[in-house]
């Protein structure tokens, strides 16, 4: 919270519009997130929360509007120019198993961003992976397993470790604990809180649980039928 | 072993030493509790706790391949080991099921009203027209207009489907309704509507409701008593108000403490939530003593790790824990340590 | 024609592009038929001349006169144009051999074939009911391996067995010709039993999974009687299966060729085969067109029935069935069958299949000739062994080609869907006839014919997997870390698709070998004296009364092959996750199938754990 300040926002979304066919699922949505700040996005299912996340990540290009991230406008960039920037903004999805390839070991999944970046180093790489595993509270032995050999909570931690391997500035957390058993949720939330304090990450936290959002977020925006009613 | 009845009401359903296994894997491991007439009993647990299996056993509908032992007694009828004809005579008339909402909860190729009519005609010998009329009336009672009766399930919203399912389960005024995660995957507003409907419909019919859920907010809002399950066993049972106010089992305490509602205001500076370490065990690989011991802050090295705690009952509350008396007044702090 | 095409298109609407591909494929097939005289490459004038006046000298002038007469000189396009415009006027051309109009022969053959297929359909329905009834009564289990075995028996084998048993040894029924109703019995049985096995199996295998759907629990819990639940489950099963029933009808048209040949039934299939062998291309064009139309009409009817069953409200609902749990034969079964086959083949390979010994003709099995000798005194075991090598070897090559094609085209889902629909409407025998007419009969032609129709199911499987991988969350995660499309393709998509599709292809090998054998049996594949299983069976039919073992050996070998195909198919079905049946209707639970596709990557221990988790039925949120 100490990071919240009047410096330039990390993410600045202006008049974002996403259409599915003729239906407007995200309707002129604007918000911003500063480094170290958590913005909660809350609303009933189908209100456009996840579409907003995908549009901010440029995984689904918005139909109009601007997404300024770290001083650069993303919507105008072509895929080639965007690719090197992608790692600085990482998603964590609801389904802990869905975001990791079922065929790859956890260790390889965490190392993949380094390979993609071209920054994999045979001598320091394994140590970096081990450090990431430890940072998210996983055992080194977990690295040798595949996603289905882990519990949902462990898998979600692995997904977070993979996101951290990218050295991001912003995490888009799309219902990161909704698919987990109640006894595992608090652990993941505590991990996210700790990482934020240590690394000064900005969070967009999407959730439908009002109490949880109120507990976890600095600011809360409410979404309904694709529109934002700020609070 | 036995759970004492609340003095005011009679026991409707009594479960004794219920065990359900698949081959060598035991998923429900000796469960005993009672359901009283007219009460709402919540069965709480995480995935793998065996609560959905228990729900099926209460209906006398164990899944294929399951071996059920112990006793499930509904009034004078024993459901475990009873021939199918005995059990099926109870279905719809004395016990009914409200399954988890999904498109698959209703047949996708039949009109909604026809599905209710099939249930009417199976029990009462009435004409096709009469059955249909009663089906439409039952749908209207749960707030589904008569002109929607011709619709197919996929044309309904999730909330409407679940209301239709409730109407179908309540057609023959059963004494006991078992609702298995009735609101999973719905947004909070729909959840509330469906649960309110379920409570009013069973209340009006004087039926008991067993609410299987993992959602503590639902339990607090709608249940009279609760049974908490962990890894196929009962860890705590008692009146909802008392359990929430002063949990006795460490697992229940951790579960309650880790929900943000307990700490609604962030300004207290408490951003970390109390959390239970580790993950629930898989039924194929259970620890030898108390199943919760590896995650429990109260665990001692001897009894908890070697000996399964048996449920003991004091002042109307049941708990299965060797060290429940040592749980501090503010158990949340125990779980803050373990972060 | 356009009506049929429209119906076909309306029947399955996963996208108009697939519909266009379908029309394109159909046009290509029609053009192939129309261009047969040009494609065949041989001078048809020679055929015509021989047929018209055998003694006339084949002088250039005489041939030119005939070419002029037939309009062959004008090139392929005008040939196609002439043929098409003739069709529109109801003129199917004139037979080159008999010089008579084609249309009456086609109509006559069609009448016979239609009544045969009608009878066969009756048999099929009876068989299917017999298979489904016990499953409905018990509300669990499935049709079991008997049904699976029935499905795998190729019609030509069953027809030969029926001929042997019912006609020759027992002498109860006439075995050849088409004079009275009693002539219909054996052909209808041979044609109807595999079809009925397939129908029954489709329904019976789908039922247990449907009976475990959540709504059955709700209905049961609300007091609905078991009889009503059974009826509702049947009603639930039918709509997604009806298109496959259409394919069964299509299969009948292919099977009819073999059955009509064995029992000398003057139907359209036998007409087509005869025309192909005698190079009478106009007659062949007419009869193949009739067979194709039969198949398309059957498919369109199935689509109409499905629409009716689904009702107006459900047309877009994308209904799928829960993945059926295939009946698994004990792993020892395929292993034992494979061992028997391999022993025979290995032993036979050590012997000489061509050595003719006229002093040892039609001998019973002995130590010198373990499986006896054939009509020329050749060693049956040796011919069986060498036949297997060529049949299975060709089948393996076909498999590989199909796999490569499937992987390449799997990335074009609409092409895969459209072509697989057309391939489903074409029985291998008809393609074999077309190829043989164009390229002449031979192993290469038969392989080409089987390859043409064996890649589309694999491509459909690959396309389904590609779509599922592309739609999965982890690909989003890939793009989010800045991975290039090439990286994603080579590291994630291809590995996810290749392994299951390759397994699927390998498991289809016995089926492909059977298709090759059936072409050999009809004289469309390998030519004498080459040892080929289908050909062996065909040759031995001539002296089956005197030397039954000569026929029995290839028949049993083929049956063992069929058994192998069945016991392996159960494993293939698990991998495909019902992709063949459900991919077309659109998957409501893509993630589930994705999981199925990946299940094979888990170690046995985890799979066991997973299945326990599943059986515990805790809702996974």
TrEMBL record, chain A:
Keyword Magnesium: no
GO terms, biological process: transmembrane transport
Molecular function via GO: ATP binding; ATP hydrolysis activity
Family annotation (InterPro entries): AAA+_ATPase, ABC_transp_ATP-bind, ABC_transporter-like_ATP-bd, ABC_transporter-like_CS, P-loop_NTPase
Keyword Nucleotide-binding annotated: yes
A Pfam cross-reference name: ABC_tran
Coiled coil: none
SMART domains, per the entry: AAA
Keywords tagged on the record: ATP-binding, Nucleotide-binding, Transport
Domain ABC transporter, first and last residues per copy: 11-231
PANTHER family per UniProt: D,D-DIPEPTIDE TRANSPORT ATP-BINDING PROTEIN DDPF-RELATED, TRANSPORT ATP-BINDING PROTEIN
Protein family per UniProt: Belongs to the ABC transporter superfamily.
Protein name, entry field: ABC transporter domain-containing protein
The species this protein was found in: Streptomyces flaveus
TrEMBL record, chain B:
GO MF term list: ATP binding; ATP hydrolysis activity
Keywords: ATP-binding, Cell membrane, Membrane, Nucleotide-binding, Transport
InterPro entries tied to this protein: AAA+_ATPase, ABC_Ni/Peptide_Import, ABC_transporter-like_ATP-bd, ABC_transporter-like_CS, Oligopep_ABC_C, P-loop_NTPase
Stretches assigned to the ABC transporter domain: 13-256
Family under the similarity heading: Belongs to the ABC transporter superfamily.
SUPFAM superfamilies: P-loop containing nucleoside triphosphate hydrolases (SSF52540)
Biological process according to GO: peptide transport
Keyword Cell membrane: yes
Record membrane topology: Peripheral membrane protein
GO cellular component, one term: plasma membrane
Protein name as it appears in the record: ABC transporter ATP-binding protein
UniProt main location, coarse: membrane
Cell compartment(s), UniProt: Cell membrane
PANTHER family hit by this protein: DIPEPTIDE TRANSPORT ATP-BINDING PROTEIN DPPD, OLIGOPEPTIDE TRANSPORT ATP-BINDING PROTEIN APPD
Organism, as annotated: Streptomyces flaveus
UniProtKB/TrEMBL annotation, chain C:
Single Gene Ontology BP annotation: transmembrane transport
Listed Gene3D superfamilies: MetI-like
Signal peptide annotation: none
Annotated ABC transmembrane type-1 domain residues: 384-570
GO cellular component terms attached to this protein's record: plasma membrane
Sorted UniProt keywords: Cell membrane, Membrane, Transmembrane, Transmembrane helix, Transport
Keyword Transport carried by entry: yes
Domain of life: Bacteria
Residues that span the membrane, as ranges: 20-39, 114-137, 149-172, 184-204, 245-268, 288-305, 395-417, 429-455, 506-527, 547-571
Location relative to the cell: Cell membrane
InterPro entries for this protein: BP-dependent_transpt_permease, MetI-like, MetI-like_sf
Topological category with respect to the lipid bilayer: Multi-pass membrane protein
Region Disordered: start-end pairs: 602-621
Protein family: Belongs to the binding-protein-dependent transport system permease family.
Protein name: ABC transporter permease
UniProt organism field: Streptomyces flaveus
Record lineage: Bacteria, Bacillati, Actinomycetota, Actinomycetes, Kitasatosporales
């Amino acid at each position: 919270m100490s990071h919240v300040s009047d410096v330039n926002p990390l993410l600045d979304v202006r008049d974002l519009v996403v259409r599915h066919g003729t239906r407007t699922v995200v309707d002129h949505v604007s918000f911003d997130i500063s480094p170290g700040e958590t913005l909660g996005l809350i609303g009933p299912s189908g209100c456009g929360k996840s579409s907003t996340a995908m549009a901010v990540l440029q995984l689904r290009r918005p139909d109009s509007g601007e997404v300024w991230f770290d001083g650069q406008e993303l919507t105008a960039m072509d895929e080639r120019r965007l690719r090197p920037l992608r790692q600085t903004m990482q998603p964590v999805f609801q389904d802990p198993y869905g975001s990791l390839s079922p065929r790859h070991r956890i260790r390889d999944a965490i190392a993949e961003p380094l390979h993609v970046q071209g920054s994999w180093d045979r001598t320091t790489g394994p140590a970096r992976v081990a450090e990431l595993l430890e940072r998210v509270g996983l055992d080194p032995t977990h690295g040798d397993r595949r996603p289905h050999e882990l519990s949902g909570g462990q898998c979600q931690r692995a997904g977070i470790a993979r996101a951290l391997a990218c050295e991001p500035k912003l995490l888009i957390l799309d219902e990161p604990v909704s698919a987990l058993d109640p006894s595992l949720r608090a652990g993941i939330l505590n991990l996210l809180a700790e990482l934020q304090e240590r690394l000064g990450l900005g969070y967009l936290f999407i959730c439908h649980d009002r109490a949880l959002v109120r507990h976890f977020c600095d600011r809360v925006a409410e979404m309904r039928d694709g529109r934002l009613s700020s609070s | 072993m036995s759970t004492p009845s609340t003095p005011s009401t009679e026991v409707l359903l009594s479960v004794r030493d219920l065990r359900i296994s698949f081959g060598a894997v035991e998923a429900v491991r000796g469960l005993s509790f009672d359901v009283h007439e007219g009460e709402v009993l919540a069965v709480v647990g995480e995935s793998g706790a065996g609560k959905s299996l228990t729900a099926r056993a209460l209906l006398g509908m164990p899944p294929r391949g399951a071996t059920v032992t112990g006793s499930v007694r509904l009034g004078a009828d024993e459901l475990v080991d009873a021939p199918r004809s005995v059990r099926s005579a109870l279905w719809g008339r004395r016990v009914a099921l409200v399954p988890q909402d999904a498109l698959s909860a209703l047949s996708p190729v039949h009109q909604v009203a026809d599905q209710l009519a099939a249930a009417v005609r199976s029990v009462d010998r009435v004409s096709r027209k009469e059955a249909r009329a009663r089906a439409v009336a039952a749908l209207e009672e749960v707030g589904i207009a008569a002109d929607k009766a011709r619709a197919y399930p996929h044309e309904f919203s999730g909330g409407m489907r679940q209301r239709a399912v409730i109407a179908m389960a309540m057609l023959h005024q059963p004494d006991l309704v078992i609702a298995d995660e009735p609101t999973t995957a719905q947004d909070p507003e729909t959840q509330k509507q469906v649960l309110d409907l379920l409570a009013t419909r069973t209340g009006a019919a004087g039926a008991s409701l067993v609410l299987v859920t993992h959602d503590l907010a639902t339990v607090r809002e709608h249940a009279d008593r609760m049974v908490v399950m962990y890894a196929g066993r009962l860890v705590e049972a008692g009146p909802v108000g008392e359990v929430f106010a002063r949990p006795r089992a460490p697992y229940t305490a951790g579960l309650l403490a880790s929900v943000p509602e307990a700490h609604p205001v962030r300004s207290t500076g408490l951003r970390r939530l109390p959390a239970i370490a580790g993950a629930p065990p898989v039924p194929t690989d259970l620890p030898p003593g108390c199943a919760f011991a590896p995650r429990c802050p109260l665990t001692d090295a001897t009894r908890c790790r070697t000996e399964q705690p048996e449920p003991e009952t004091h002042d109307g509350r049941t708990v299965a824990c060797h060290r429940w008396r040592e749980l501090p007044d503010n158990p949340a702090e125990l779980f803050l340590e373990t972060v | 024609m356009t009506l049929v095409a429209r119906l076909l298109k309306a029947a399955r609407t996963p996208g108009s592009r697939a519909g266009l591909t379908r029309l394109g494929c159909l046009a290509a097939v029609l053009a192939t038929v129309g261009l047969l005289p040009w494609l065949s490459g041989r001078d048809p004038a020679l055929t015509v001349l021989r047929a018209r006046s055998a003694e006339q000298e084949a002088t250039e002038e005489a041939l030119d006169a005939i070419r002029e007469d037939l309009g062959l000189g004008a090139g392929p396009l005008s040939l196609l144009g002439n043929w098409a415009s003739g069709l529109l006027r109801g003129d199917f051309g004139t037979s080159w051999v008999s010089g008579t109009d084609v249309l009456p022969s086609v109509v006559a053959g069609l009448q016979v074939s239609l009544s045969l297929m009608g009878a066969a359909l009756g048999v099929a329905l009876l068989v299917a009911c017999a298979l489904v009834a016990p499953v409905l009564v018990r509300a669990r289990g499935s049709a079991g391996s008997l049904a699976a075995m029935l499905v795998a028996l190729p019609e030509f084998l069953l027809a030969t067995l029926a001929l042997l048993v019912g006609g020759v040894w027992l002498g109860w029924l006439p075995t050849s010709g088409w004079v009275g109703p009693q002539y219909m019995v054996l052909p209808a049985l041979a044609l109807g039993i595999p079809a009925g096995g397939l129908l029954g199996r489709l329904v019976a295998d789908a039922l247990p999974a449907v009976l475990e759907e959540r709504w059955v629990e709700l209905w049961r819990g609300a007091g609905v009687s078991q009889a009503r639940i059974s009826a509702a489950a049947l009603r639930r099963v039918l709509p997604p299966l009806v298109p496959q029933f259409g394919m069964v009808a299509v299969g009948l048209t292919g099977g009819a060729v073999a059955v009509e040949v064995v029992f000398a039934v003057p139907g359209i299939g036998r007409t087509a085969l005869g025309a192909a062998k005698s190079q009478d291309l106009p007659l062949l064009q007419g009869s193949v067109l009739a067979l194709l139309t039969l198949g398309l009409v059957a498919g369109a009817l199935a689509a109409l029935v499905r629409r009716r069953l689904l009702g107006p409200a459900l047309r877009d609902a994308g209904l799928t069935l829960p993945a059926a749990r295939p009946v698994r034969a004990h792993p020892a079964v395929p292993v034992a069958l494979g061992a028997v086959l391999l022993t025979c083949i290995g032993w036979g390979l050590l012997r000489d299949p061509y050595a003719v010994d006229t002093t040892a003709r039609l001998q019973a099995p002995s130590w010198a000739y373990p499986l006896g000798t054939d009509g020329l005194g050749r060693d049956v075991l040796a011919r069986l062994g060498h036949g297997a090598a060529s049949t299975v070897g060709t089948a393996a090559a076909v498999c590989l080609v199909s796999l490569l094609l499937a992987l390449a085209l799997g990335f074009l889902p609409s092409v895969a869907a459209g072509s697989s629909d057309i391939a489903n409407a074409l029985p291998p025998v008809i393609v074999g006839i077309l190829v043989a007419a164009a390229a002449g009969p031979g192993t290469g032609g038969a392989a080409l014919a089987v390859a043409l129709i064996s890649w589309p199911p694999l491509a459909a499987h690959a396309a389904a997997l590609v779509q599922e991988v592309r739609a999965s969350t982890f690909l989003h995660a890939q793009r989010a870390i800045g991975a290039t499309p090439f990286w994603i393709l080579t590291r994630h998509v291809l590995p996810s698709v290749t392994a299951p599709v390759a397994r699927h292809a390998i498991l289809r090998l016995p089926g492909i070998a059977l298709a090759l054998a059936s072409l050999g049996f009809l004289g469309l594949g390998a030519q004498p004296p080459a040892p080929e299983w289908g050909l062996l069976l065909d040759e031995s039919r001539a002296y089956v009364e005197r030397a039954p073992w000569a026929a029995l050996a290839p028949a049993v070998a083929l049956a063992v092959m069929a058994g192998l195909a069945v016991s392996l198919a159960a494993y293939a079905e698990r991998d495909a996750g019902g992709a063949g049946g459900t991919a077309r209707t659109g998957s409501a639970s893509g993630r589930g199938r994705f999981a199925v596709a990946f299940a094979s990557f888990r170690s046995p221990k985890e799979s066991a754990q997973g299945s326990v988790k599943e059986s515990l039925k805790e809702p996974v949120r």
